[in-house]
Amino acid sequence: MKVVILPGLDGTGGMVVPFVDAVGLDCAVLSYPDQLHSYDQIIDWIQPQLPESPFVIVAESFSGPVAVRIAHTNYTNLRGVVLVATFARSPRYLPALMFPLLSMLPINSRFFGFLSQPLVMGRWTSRQFRKQFCDLLGSVPKATLIARLKQVSLVDVADLVAEVDVPMIYLQAKDDRLVPARAARDFRRIKVISGPHFLLQANPMASAEAVIEFIDEHGTP
Q1: Mean pLDDT of 25-40
Q2: pTM of the full predicted structure?
Q3: Do 1 and 55 form a contact (C-beta atoms < 8 A)?
């Protein structure tokens, strides 16, 4: 069974190695081109790359709505979806005034990456994670990050969730400081795992165990 991993807001998938190692399955980590900003663009880009054999999607944060929309189409060979610390509708109110302000701030700088650690990792942060996170953040254009945040502020696929036929499970980070706990209410099956928003990075073993259990239950061809 192949596991297709859809990345968070940065679109790189550059920090899922601990999870990939822990899950021990055939994984394809997709990296979105920087010029892809909207959910429509990203879905159009992903579809030709999906496997022609049975697969499961693991979608982090920003990519949750992407996975829901793909699952809603009853995509051939898709056996299930694992949603990680994500949302079906905008998880927080983001005023329009915020986006011009963000364009004036160095949100893809190492300094901003360091300041954001209490939100993204909390007590699970480490020197290695900080370095990797700051390097990754600096590799993505600021305009790309802001444009994707705008997508988050507008998204609402909650009505589609109830119409998805393939099995889904939501892995909720117990100490997520970015996506509020209420975001899980849009999903039928929820598993709470100890960790921050970057759940696959902070608690790869527990996350991998949940994914393997889900695949064993639903992922047979």
Answers
A1: 96
A2: 0.94
A3: yes
